[in-house]
Amino acid sequence: MPFRRGNTSPTGPDQTAAAGGDPTSTPLPAAAAQRIERLASTESQGAFTSDLSVDEHLLVTQAGFEPVGYVMGTSIYHVGLQVAAWNQSQELQTLTQAMYSARELAIERMKTEADALHADGIVGVDLRIQMYAWGQDVLEFVAQGTAVRSMTQPGAAKLSDGSPFTSDLSGQDFFTLLQGGHFPVAFVLGNCVYHVAHQSAMQALRQTGQNQEIAQFTEAVYTARELAMTRMQAEADEYGAHSIVGVRAIVANHVWGEHATEFLALGTAVRRVEESVPSVPVSLTLPLTS
Questions:
Q1: 27 within a domain of the structure (yes/no)
Q2: Looking at per-residue confidence, does 213 or 265 come out higher?
Q3: Is residue 187 part of a domain?
Q4: Cβ-proximal residues to 241 (8 Å cutoff; 6+ apart), any chain
């Protein structure tokens, strides 16, 4: 199973309060609520914001969805430390949960904004981490994308629980996916913060001047990446998806030093649909460069 809100491990106890709480119970900041209210009140006049490119906007519209607004969610999180044996490779489960919970807070707030705009889903989701001058161990987790709504059947494309679908596919990939009879369900992720054991002085000495694999490093990195991938796949299974597209694996040290690393797997879970979007001839103009 993946790390979910309230879990410190796939089989661990519930620690929602320690992990940061349930994102759905956290209201939007006043400034965000006012912006969304303003967008919702003016959307009938055609005013909306979007991070889609011109080509993406055209293709999303051709696929039968209209952009209704740029949405985002953010969470500024203090990422602490976890003690680990220097000579033992192991997952740092408390840090894994913290990194997962911070992203979930940002994603849920982004979805809350999309709900307020009566959107069916969010396309072009971008998830990133930023540092500020407040401290090396203070990270901002940001999720952002463009909320879209079906032009023919508003609400029909939402998930079974009434929440909007999410996808990190580009507008072009979104259009192509629908043309092929598939539909995005959810932006899914899996992560693992792993401590890679240090080498002993004797091991380092034996390797001096030698070309050879460092087996304990290889095994630790392999294990951590597999944990992240497995958790991402488990999230997709929870949504009833049949595949994950656009998968990418990211490795980053963040604030923990050289031997503690986060492995993050991301992608869009998709399902087959009975009918594909009708084929529409699309003509795009490419700029000429000198």
A1: no
A2: 265
A3: yes
A4: 185, 186, 188, 269, 270, 271
**CATH number for the domain including 268?**
3.30.110.70
Q: If we measure between CA atoms, which residue out of 22, 4, 20 comes closest to residue 12?
A: 4
Cβ atoms 56, 171 nearer than 8 A: yes
Residue 143: pLDDT band (50, 70, 90) is very high
Q: What is the pLDDT of residues 148-161, one digit of tens each?
A: 999 999 888 999 89
Name the residue type at position 26.
T
Our count of domains for the chain comes to 1
> In whole angstroms, what is the distance from residue 112 CA to residue 118 CA?
10
**Does residue 96 belong to any structural domain of this protein?**
yes
Range of the domain at 174: 49-272
Is 176 part of any domain?
yes
DSSP state of 105: H
Instruction: Give the closest residue to 174 by CA, choosing from 283, 83, 63, 257.
Output: 63
Q: Which helix (H) or strand (E) holds 75?
A: strand 65-78
Q: Do the beta carbons of residue 193 and residue 257 sit within 8 Å?
A: no
For 255, residues 6+ apart whose C-beta sits below 8 A from its C-beta are: 79, 136, 137, 139
Q: Is 169 exposed, middle or buried (0-12, 13-18, 19+ CB in 10 A)?
A: buried
Q: Spell 219-253 as b/e; 16+ CB within 10 A means b.
A: ebbebbbebbbbbbbbbbeeeebeebbbeeeeeee
H/E stretch holding 186: strand 182-195
Cβ pair 73, 108 in contact under 8 A: yes
User: What is the structure's pLDDT at 145?
Assistant: 96
pLDDT digit string, tens, across residues 8-26: 333 333 333 333 344 444 5
Strands 260-272 and 182-195: antiparallel
State the residue for tokens 């969610």.
73
